[in-house]
Amino acid sequence: MHEAPIRRAGTGKQSQRKEASDVDDLVADFGFLAVNATARDFYGFTAEMSFARLVLSTSSKEAMPPFATNVLPPRYAATPLVQHYLDYVFILYPFLSEAALFASLDNLYQDAGRHATPMDHWTIRMVLAIALASRSRYNGDSQYRDAVRHAAAALEWGDRVLQPGSRVAIQALLLLVQYAMLDPFHFSSWYLIGVASRVMVDLGLHQDPPEELRMKDAHLTLRRRIYSSVYALDRLRITRHGISVWGRAANAT
Fold first, then answer.
1. CB distance 164 to 42 below 8 Å
2. pTM for the structure as a whole
3. Tens digits of per-residue pLDDT, 153-172?
4. 84 band by pLDDT with thresholds 50, 70 and 90
């Protein structure tokens, strides 16, 4: 998965240090806001400033452009993009269930999407955005514009999927991290991976649950894949920024 060219110039060591310091502050803020990781309600959030809005506003570099219409492409056009994601991105970062991904695709395209959940909308729109952005040759080409359009459509569901205290929120964040790495003009993947790391550790996904819980093999495998994906994406960011959020946000075992 390649990163799209950055449009902003002048990202020197001083700006990287400033950004790293900002991430430290942000990650610390989440620690103070959390009641506990298994609760859905966090102290400090109001109707005006939800967890999702805090994450999106802090990680946003430029506002997403408005679109008059933002309909899904025909299924025959969407399916190859989903397969492209599976072939080139999912194989490296398998934090989603492949079966759940295709179930989301079915939910969006069957019965006019009446049975689609917010996570179905978020997942498919983000997967389409990531696939298109990864195939874009330069910022501004048709595939890049379509990627931005799908990402903007996904963000409309942000308040419904980016909720603290859930595994789904981590998966949603990781999709946004992947998109941000391909569209650094609009989002900072550095901020986002810091948040994902903190939420993952708060939920305890960085270690296996006690054996007495007798978790199903499929659930345990998915937990481990989420952990390994967060770790791998954080390590990938080190090649750019030189400092790991992981080292500050967690003491993983």
1. yes
2. 0.78
3. 999 999 999 988 889 999 99
4. very high
- Residue 217, CA distances (Å) to 169, 211, 213 in order: 21, 12, 12
Closest to 155 measured CA to CA, from 136, 182, 129 = 129
Q: Give me 141's structure tokens.
A: 């080409």
Q: Read off the pLDDT band of 14 (50, 70, 90).
A: low
CA 198 to mean position of chain CA atoms: 13
Q: How far is CA 45 from CA 91, 102, 201, 202, 210, in A?
A: 36, 34, 20, 17, 32
Report the greatest alpha carbon distance in the chain.
Answer: 53
What pLDDT, on the 0 to 100 scale, is given for residue 72? 95
Residue 45 gets the label, from left (phi > 0), alpha (psi -120 to 50) or beta, of beta
Identify which of 244, 240, 239, 225 has the alpha carbon closest to the alpha carbon of residue 93. Answer: 225
Categorise residue 144: left if φ over 0, alpha if ψ from -120 to 50, beta otherwise.
Answer: alpha
